[in-house]
Amino acid sequence: MDVVDAIRSRKSIRGFKPDPVPKEVLWEILDIVRRTPSARNTQPWNITVVAGEVLDNIRQGNIEMLAGGVEPNPDFPRKPYEGIYRQRQVDLAIQIFKLMDIAREDTTKRAEWRERGLRFFDAPAVIILSIDRSVDKTLSLLDIGAFVQTICLAALNYGLGTCINNQGLMFPEVVRKYAHIPESRLIVTSIAIGYPDWGFPANKLETERESLENLVTWCGFA
Ligand SMILES: Cc1cc2nc3c(=O)[nH]c(=O)nc-3n(C[C@H](O)[C@H](O)[C@H](O)COP(=O)(O)O)c2cc1C
């Protein structure tokens, strides 16, 4: 697949076919993706791939934490967005809820959608990225970002869809327990991966982007 086509066509997939992703395919993708650049070639990514019973246990554990009213405690605490960033977040939710036919006041359906995120959208496999507590966080998070996007692009070559997912990492103790990620590592992000169910309404979403005119400052050009 042409790299520009891949960048243009990649989008988040939140509904998957139940078909498992063969380990050999995931291996091949990760073997390509390990070429991702990193600061000083430190390659800070630790990759944990979960499927089957282990993934089911994580999903179940997440739902139990949520149902038990446990306060989310991700390894990288979130800060609420403000201004234009908050607006874009709201716009995304409006678009998804419209496609999924979830009314603003329908708290039951909204809660179901939230649970779906905590279940990694029922994807057949999830790739979890973690870093050693000892490494420089700023640079390592940049490295992980590059790694994650490269996974999402490479996956397209195998007919796979992805959604980067931080919702499923709200209760890191659950992920640590079942995926055997030691306390010495911080869980950064994850990618739900599988074969897209193109009939799933939210997969029709085409998100917007700010125009280049509003993004770029050109310096030294005529
Ligand atoms: C760091 C990161 C975390 C994300 N976490 C979630 C998540 O927990 N749940 C979700 O539905 N989407 C998540 N996304 C997907 C974004 O919502 C999505 O990339 C964005 O809306 C742009 O849409 P697109 O991927 O279809 O282009 C995440 C994306 C990134 C980069």
What is the end-to-end distance?
A: 36 Å
Reported for the largest beta sheet, the result is: 4 strands, antiparallel
Distinct small-molecule ligands in the complex: flavin mononucleotide
Approximate helicity band: 40-55%
The amount of beta strand, in percent, is 5-15%
Q: What is the subunit arrangement here? A: single chain
SSE arrangement, N to C: HHEHHHEHEHEH
List low-confidence stretches: none
Q: Which radius of gyration do the C-alpha atoms yield? A: 18 Å
Topology of this structure?
Blueprint: H1 3-9, H2 23-33, E1 46-51, H3 52-67, H4 83-99, H5 107-118, E2 125-132, H6 137-156, E3 161-165, H7 172-179, E4 185-194, H8 212-215
Antiparallel strand pairs: 1-2, 2-4, 3-4
Helix pairs in contact: 2-6, 3-7
Flavin mononucleotide (FMN) is lined by residues 11-12, 14, 92, 117, 163-167, 189, 207.
Task: Characterize the structure shown.
The protein is an alpha+beta fold and 222 residues long. The radius of gyration is 18 Å and the shape is globular. It has helices at residues 3-9, 23-33, 52-67, 83-99, 107-118, 137-156, 172-179, 212-215; strands at 46-51, 125-132, 161-165, 185-194. It has a 4-stranded antiparallel sheet. 43% of the residues lie in helices and 13% in strands. The protein has 8 helices and 4 strands, in the order ααβαααβαβαβα. It binds flavin mononucleotide (FMN). Residues 11-12, 14, 92, 117, 163-167, 189, 207 line the site of flavin mononucleotide (FMN).
